[in-house]
Design a protein that fits this description.
The complex is a heterodimer of chains A (about 425) and B (about 425). By secondary structure, chain A is α+β, with helices and mostly antiparallel strands. Chain A is about 40% helix and about 20% strand. In chain A, helix 9 packs across helix 11 and helix 11 packs across helix 13. The relative contact order of chain A is 0.07. In chain B, about 80% of the residues lie in helices and about 0% in strands. The longest helix of chain B has about 40 residues. The chains are: A alpha+beta (about 425), B mainly alpha (about 425). The interface between A and B is large, with 47 and 55 residues.
Amino acid sequence: MPYLSEIQHRRVIEPNGNEVGKLADVAVVPQGQFPAAQWAILTTPSGEKIIRWGDLAQEIGHFRLRSRLETTPDAQLPSEALRLARDLLDKQIVDTHGAKVVRVNDLQLSEVEGQLRLVGADVGLRGLLRRVGAESLAERVAGLAGRRLPRGIIPWHLVEPLETASPDAAKTAAVRLTIPHAKLALLHPADIADVVEEMTADERVAVFQQLDLETAAEALQEVEPEMQAAIVSDLPEERAADILEEMDPDEAADLLQDLPEERREELVELMEKEEAKDVEELLTYPQESAGGIMTSDVVALGGELTAAQAIDELRVKKPDPELTYYLYVVDGEGRLDGVLSLRDLVVAPPETKVNAIMDPHVLRVDAETPKEEVASLIAKYDLLALPVVDARRKLIGTVTIDDVVELMLPRGWKKRSLRSIAR
Amino acid sequence: MIRTASAVRRRARIRRGTLLAFLAVMGPGIITGFAGNDAGGVATYTAVGAHYGFAMLWLLLLSTAGLVVIQEMCARMGAVTGKGLSDLIRERFGVRWTIVAMIALLVANGSNVVAEFAGVAASLELLGIERVVSVPAAAIAIWALVVFFSYRVVERALFVLVLAFVAYPVTALIVKPDWDAVLKGVVLPTIPAEQAALIAALALVGTTITPYMQFYIQASIVDKGIDRELYRFARVDVYLGALLTGLNGFFIVVVAGAVLFPSHVTVNSAADAAQALGPLAGAQSKLLFGVGLFGASLLAATVMPLSTSYAICEAFGWESGISRNFREAPVFMGLFTLLIVVGALVVLSPSVPLIPLILVSQNVNGLLLPIVLVFILKLAGDRALMGDQANGRVSQIVGVGTALLASALSVGLVVTTLIRG
């Protein structure tokens, strides 16, 4: 009994062979790897009737009730139940293995230890052909050409149903909201971002509600800028502020820049003091300048430290990998004096002063420097990052290569989004 | 349920900056209105005016009313469900009906692509470029443009060319048509019961309410992230866009009716059509008309294959996106390429007169319109899907009326063709 489309609309008969209706739908509770069919929804002349799946027996070409229709007890669908035909068939799901949104053409069911279970979603051409009754014909045609029709089945445990916020019954919406996005959370944040971009606004918000903060922040950073702003606008303020705190300050500042002023202020207010301060500083610079794209997280070492002390300090601070390309040396006032690499620090004798190993000729830019200029400096001198200083040469941040890499790519390399103009 | 506090606050903000909010969501409707200004539209409106004077203006009025209501329905569906039209058709009607709807869309849009290439050929023939040169060049340019560059860059340039059609309202003022006769044409429903007139009438309806526009407007609303709250503002834009389409058609018919109809010009080529702008531009009218037609045709010839491929792949869950290659998105890239190749090939057959070819293509649109409308009306009237935003009685009646109008003309055309044949 392999596919939903094959058993849906089959006749249902009473023990005496009297036809009482048709099988309209099968319901499961989406828990475990392969959820078992627990209820059958029948269409009878007197309307819809929900019964337990166990009250039906499958026979060739039809289903037989174990007792007469009137004596078969009505069952109640719990709120977390999923009706396969109504809630899944023809809907979009996330293939968590391929990290993309696909459409369910059919559902594969299988008898496992005497239990009919949902084992996979058919998203391939075969499923489509089966729905129009042309699978065997197409198979024969393909066979003549010496080919076989490819199967496109995603095992159920790799599938994540998408919420659809249908305004009809609050019941339906509630069903969907109880499905956790546990499988989605296992994807790489960049993949989550790709998947999320395919979703509707409501689904996106639901996903960002449920992901843990760190994953949500990383995924949000990967989403396209216009969509970032839309997502943050739709999330509850508290949640949005929590996610913003987890983001890199420069990414958070960029995102906030795209929001209306009021909303921006509300969110910054809700953020933790320290993160808010970083972000607010960044917000004061124009978006197109070094100050606007830099991050204020920066590794600054005092010149009087010894190499050993400096390494100890790094051990304590545990800076992000992209911030350890270069280590900056500052004086007592925080003014930029020089630069050294992690390698310089590690190979130097432990008692040497940082001052002595640093390179005092350090290339730097002002906060007001246009970002294109920053990009061309980084490209010209083959740098991984550039320090940003204020008017008094005080170190205020760094622009890393990943902040400007888009400006260096040839035109057309950027992800093109044509969907809005073309459909 | 999710967005309580923020929604309330956002609504408050919108009320304060009403004009700003309107400008922010404005666009999709007006752009769709512009898209109605393609080769099919210009050729059809010119032919209708030249051959029947002002007699069919009433039909244009009805079509525009239908367009306004139907575009609003689709935009509303986009705002309420957050999904495209082909998404909704698939989810609500299943695989079989989706195939019916998508074949209708493919054929309608395919015939539009033919019309756009005919427009490219006709406009460049005015400048002395043979179609064996212009059509393949345009096809290759469009394909390469979309695949290797960004569509948006060229979009703006072509929009500027389309502005040449502002010449029609200006000409209308110069030629001073008999406004009483115009009014009579708008109010009195008359139609000659002959095949040629029915072809013109069905083309008029089909080009004003192109099925393509419904898919396009809904997708734009979804992509702009316009939801229920913002929809109040977007609706104005949708209405304006639909009215723009009708108004544009009105001026072309009036100008052609005032300039070409009295001298019994049969519109077979772009040169014939260009004469309508004679009172304004004199000897330069060919250039003016050619530039406008070229921009409009090329623009639509680019958008049409793309949007068709997106809609169909979305309905069946196939990979789509222009940044993907043939191996990643075979159906998407295949459909896109096929539409361009077929469109160009049809136009290349040398004996086909271009303007009549465009009229036939718009008839195909008119014939298929009722099919698409049935899906739209069922979806937009569905309370389970749309809740309190489902179609009211007026929308539903106008929608059904439009479908019936297009069906009646289609049946009439088929009957007269059979009788004659």
